[in-house]
Design a protein that fits this description.
Blueprint: E1 8-13, E2 29-34, E3 40-46, H1 49-57, H2 64-72, E4 75-80, H3 84-98, E5 107-108, E6 114-117, E7 126-129, E8 138-140, H4 146-160, H5 174-177, H6 191-205, H7 209-225, H8 229-248, E9 258-267, E10 270-279, E11 282-292, H9 302-314, E12 323-327, H10 334-342, E13 349-353, H11 360-379, H12 384-394, E14 403-412, E15 416-425, E16 428-429, E17 435-438, H13 447-464, E18 472-476, H14 479-491, E19 498-503, E20 508-510, H15 525-554
Parallel strand pairs: 9-12, 12-13, 14-18, 18-19
Antiparallel strand pairs: 1-4, 2-3, 2-4, 5-11, 6-7, 6-8, 9-10, 10-11, 14-15, 15-16, 15-17, 19-20
Helix pairs in contact: 4-8, 7-8, 12-15, 13-14
Length: about 550
């Protein structure tokens, strides 16, 4: 929960002059520039409001955008807050609310995951997240591949056995029995030992593997010397995991500095920006951003977008690189950007990658290629309304599928089966409506029986409660699972809902009383939407099944 800001509002009316400078506090806060009609032109944050606001007026603007902005400013509102974090949060809130014409909206693609360590917990937990908040957690990343993050987290859990559960259970869970958690919940590890493991994990994530390797070697030798061979073997396995991971990571440059490499591309007025993160010579991740220009507002060049991006990103970042690498065609902006960042006491070397540098230039080219890929992904995203229209047309559905519900069955160890239902509204997941069904049938390991039960229970309840039925049902499976779901609908005398199934092997789509499945093109947005529903139901069913397994082991 965000702390409420103890803000104070100051207003300066009229054209800014050096004499009005003293009216502006030197506190952190937000400044709001308005025109003669009191329309908000621009919202910004600052560590020192007086210093930042004055910089717009007492020297010639470096950027065209700033020059145009200053000409229109007639009134200034100043909001003083307690600290920089509050200024950052307030700025983001106000920009989202007012959408000023001189602010550029850098939309985070959120394609790239982070690893988060919850430092506020007595026994900090470690987990994957795609959201980075201003909280007490410690974030690492973002990483280029979710698969790589999962592999890294698996190694971390194997090596350091930190907890991943949201709430400490009263009994050890499956992770403990798999050797992936030290079970602080039942005092299998002391707070001191857990802290030592945490420090090792943090060093690992910070990239300081050399120190970690030497530490593990020392511990392994000491354990062997004391004839604690089981403990020595654990250290050896941790070392083997480290070496294996290191072999997969390629060293791109011979430098121990942290470098952000920024690639930017433009198509049809939309900009794609990718920041490649080089840490100790290795490419560890990337961040993607999109800027869609509004034709009704001032249009900015690629150079102006890049300048604003650097100022926004690095004046509000706790974890700063040693340097930023950009294309040499933007070299005229370097000094102005450096001066601007210095207003917030941020000293980062901004430099250009040149073709003469055989190590750095290919990395810039790679970042620009990634920016283009990121941009094309965004531009090629189908319009959901059109996709739903095409879904109805291509599969000859009776209804427009504004509400789609997907079903999947998951089984484990011959004793447990779970059925789930996920719901999509307007082509997007509606997670508040997801449902789980613990299969009650005697032969619950029979897929067909379990599917019939889940579908029957879902729509029996909706009918009893007189609630809205979906327009389309998507079943994970082939003709057998589809027939089972149809039996449930027939029992309930439901005739007006469209129902299909999708078989994973060939991605065939089956409809009732259809002997041969339909194969849609692999690049079809309609197929992609059906796959999303199917994949989400499968993900949710696996999640719920493992929750049941954990609960069973604790009971």
């Amino acid at each position: 929960m965000k702390k409420q800001t103890s803000s104070q509002i100051h207003q300066i009316t009229g054209i800014f002059t050096p004499e009005t400078k003293s009216a502006i506090p030197e506190n952190p806060g937000v400044y709001i520039y308005k025109d003669s009609n009191d329309t908000i032109l621009y919202i910004g944050k600052a560590k020192n409001l007086r210093k930042r606001v004055a910089s717009y007026f007492i020297k010639t603007p470096v950027y065209l955008k700033t020059h145009l902005l200053v000409q229109e400013i007639k009134n200034i509102d100043i909001i003083v807050v307690d600290n920089e974090n509050e200024a950052l949060f307030l700025e983001a809130t106000l920009i989202k609310k007012h959408l000023p014409k001189f602010n550029i909206n850098f939309k985070d693609g959120k394609f790239y995951p982070y690893i988060k360590v919850s430092l506020k917990d007595d026994f900090p937990r470690i987990f994957i997240t795609r959201n980075k908040y201003e909280d007490d957690g410690l974030y690492f990343g973002p990483y280029a591949s979710a698969g790589n993050v999962r592999a890294t987290l698996e190694i971390l859990q194997k090596m350091f056995q930190l907890r991943t559960c949201k709430i400490l259970p009263k009994k050890e869970c499956l992770e403990y029995h798999m050797g992936r958690c030290s079970a602080p919940c039942i005092n299998k590890i002391s707070p001191e030992e857990y802290k030592e493991n945490l420090e090792g994990a943090l060093n690992f994530l910070k990239g300081d593997k050399a120190t970690l390797i030497e530490d593990l070697k020392t511990k392994m030798k000491a354990a062997a010397k004391e004839m604690l061979f089981e403990k020595a073997q654990i250290y050896k396995e941790q070392l083997d995991s480290l070496y294996a991971l290191d072999e997969k990571q390629h060293v791109y440059i011979t430098s121990d500095q942290d470098i952000d490499i920024i690639g930017i591309e433009e198509k049809n007025g939309t900009f794609g920006i990718v920041v490649s993160l080089l840490r100790q010579g290795k490419l560890t991740g990337k961040e993607g951003f999109i800027v869609k220009q509004d034709p009704s507002k001032p249009l900015f060049s690629t150079q102006e977008i890049l300048e604003e991006f650097i100022i926004n990103k690095y004046s509000a970042n706790d974890s700063l690189p040693h340097s930023i690498l950009i294309n040499e065609k933007f070299d005229s902006t370097i000094q102005g950007l450096s001066d601007w960042l210095k207003e917030d006491d941020i000293t980062i070397t901004i430099r250009c990658a040149t073709k003469e540098n055989s190590q750095e230039y290919p990395l810039l080219t790679l970042a620009e290629k990634n920016a283009l890929v990121h941009l094309e992904q965004i531009l090629s995203e189908p319009d959901l309304l059109q996709t739903l229209t095409n879904l109805q047309k291509e599969l000859k559905l009776k209804n427009f599928p504004s509400i789609i519900e997907g079903f999947d069955i998951a089984k484990l160890d011959g004793t447990l089966a779970s059925g789930v239902m996920v719901q999509f509204q307007g082509g997007e997941p509606n997670k508040s409506s997801y449902k789980m069904f613990n299969i009650k049938a005697e032969n619950q390991q029979d897929d067909y029986i379990a599917m019939e039960e889940a579908v029957y229970r879902r729509y029996k309840r909706l009918l009893d409660e007189k609630k809205t039925l979906p327009q389309l049902i998507v079943i994970d499976g082939g003709k057998g699972q589809l027939s089972s779901a149809l039996k449930a609908l027939d029992k309930l005398e439901i005739k007006d809902i469209d129902i299909i199934s999708i078989a994973k092997q060939e991605e065939e789509i089956f409809k009732p009383r259809q002997k041969i499945g339909t194969l849609l093109p692999k690049n079809s947005p309609v197929l992609h939407l059906i796959q999303r529903v199917r994949d989400e139901s499968h993900r949710f069913s696996q999640y719920q099944l493992h929750r049941r397994m954990d609960k069973k082991m604790r009971s």
